[in-house]
Design brief:
Proton glutamate symport protein; single chain; 423 residues; 0% strand; mainly alpha
Length: 423
């Protein structure tokens, strides 16, 4: 009972029961979950900024810094492509949309779905590049735009590194502030069970468990495909690195439960960075790969994109050849980027993909809008697993990962958990 994940798990179960048995009361819990997530988001941008600046200043050479960044982006792109392909294969094998026979002409966009679709239609594939540069340095922090904060942090870190001894006092302040902000995060995380309870109660109370059965086959395919990707694909990658995936996931169990309860991988970004450093992944690698991975390494979102797009084609009886699917995959490599932390990001990226292709009716997103909240949990969980593995891969690729130290740390953490459980 002294473990945070136990309380989070109990809170999730309590939230499900409240939302199921008393839907109105569950919906009323929305402010509880939203407040907790907002409290975490309040700390994300300063932690990302301070961690990246500290990491850059701690790198022995600019050349090494450039190598880490390039290797991270290469891995992110390869991971995204692999996730998209896995999703396409799964949706073609199980074909849950066949037999639905939805009439595209009768589908009308409304509410939030219409808003997300409009954003997707108006967006351009290159906007994630222009969106890197903020119009105001303060605005990037105020808006919680992690990608822009990364841009500012990289510039600040490079400048401090370049001025040498002149910047050392500032670097010391940055390191001290980092310690203080993580202590604040520790205090906020004590409320994680309450936040998970409120968010889960709202989800079940608002959308109802019955929503899960209406499109159950699609949900099952998505969850099954994501599980396959994590266990088989990421498991194989971890094996090559020399780390046991199951032990890594067990070490991060609290983070996974918090993500499950809040449907947001952002809620654990600072904790994830801290815990990866604690097991031996160099801070500079973690500081660069994890925050950027939240915008460029979205494995769960990529699987969702390919599954959802082809499902809509199947459900509306829209012919979509293998060549058409490959072309759609190329578009998704661009539309899936830079969407981390944006409300409705999955739908915006999906609408942007369908609008760009022009072959599958964009209004078809209404077919799956009702279950998106349940799909978002799986997207967030898979994204978290992917970014956890990414930092290990980049560190090993760079030759700075002490695999033996990581293994010992994971075994030690597992033993500590076992001792607490037996006590």
């Amino acid at each position: 009972m002294r473990q945070l994940y136990v309380w989070v798990l109990l809170a999730i179960v309590a939230g499900i029961l409240l939302g199921w048995l008393w839907p109105a009361a569950g919906v009323a819990m929305q402010p509880v979950g939203t407040t907790f997530v907002n409290a975490i988001k309040m700390l994300i941008t300063p932690i990302v900024f301070l961690t990246i600046v500290s990491g850059i200043c701690g790198v022995d050479s600019m050349r090494r810094l450039g190598r880490i960044g390039i290797k991270a982006m290469v891995y992110f792109q390869a991971g995204t492509l692999l996730a998209l392909i896995v999703g396409l294969v799964a949706i073609n094998i199980f074909a849950p949309g066949e037999g639905v026979h939805a009439d595209p002409g009768s589908l009308q966009l409304s509410g939030d779905a219409a808003t997300y679709a409009e954003k997707g239609k108006e967006g351009q594939w290159w906007e994630f590049l222009t969106g890197l540069v903020p119009t105001s340095a303060v605005g990037a922090f105020a808006d919680g735009n992690v990608l822009q904060v990364i841009f500012i942090a990289v510039l600040a870190g490079l400048a401090l590194k370049a001025v040498g001894p002149v910047g050392e006092p500032i670097v010391n302040v940055v390191n001290r502030l980092n310690t203080v902000v993580f202590k604040i995060l520790h205090y906020v995380m004590l409320a994680a069970p309450i936040g998970a309870f409120g968010a889960m109660a709202f989800t079940i109370g608002k959308y109802g468990i019955s929503t899960l059965t209406s499109l159950g086959e699609l949900i099952a395919v998505f969850y099954g495909t994501s599980l396959f990707f994590v266990v088989v694909i990421l498991g194989a990658i971890c094996a090559v690195v020399g780390v046991n995936l199951l032990r890594l996931l067990g070490y991060l169990r609290e983070e996974f439960l918090i993500v499950l309860g809040t449907s947001s991988s952002e809620s654990v970004l600072p904790r994830l960075m801290d815990k990866l450093v604690r097991i031996g992944v160099p801070r500079d690698v973690v500081g660069l790969t994890v925050p950027t991975g939240y915008s460029f390494n979205l494995d769960g979102s990529s699987i969702y994109l390919s599954l959802a797009a082809v499902y809509i084609a199947q459900a509306t009886d829209t012919p979509l050849s293998i060549g058409g699917q490959i072309g759609m995959l190329a578009v998704m490599l661009l539309t899936s980027k830079g969407s981390g932390g944006v409300t409705g990001a999955g739908f915006i990226a999906l609408a942007a993909t369908l609008s760009t292709m022009g072959t599958v009716p964009a209004a078809g997103i209404m077919l799956i809008f009702g279950i998106d909240k349940f799909m978002s949990e799986c997207r967030a969980l898979t994204n978290l697993a992917g970014n956890s593995v990414a930092s290990l891969v980049v560190a090993r690729w760079e030759g700075v990962l002490d695999v033996g130290k990581v293994r010992r740390a994971l075994i030690s953490e597992r033993q500590k958990a076992a001792d607490l459980s037996s006590a």
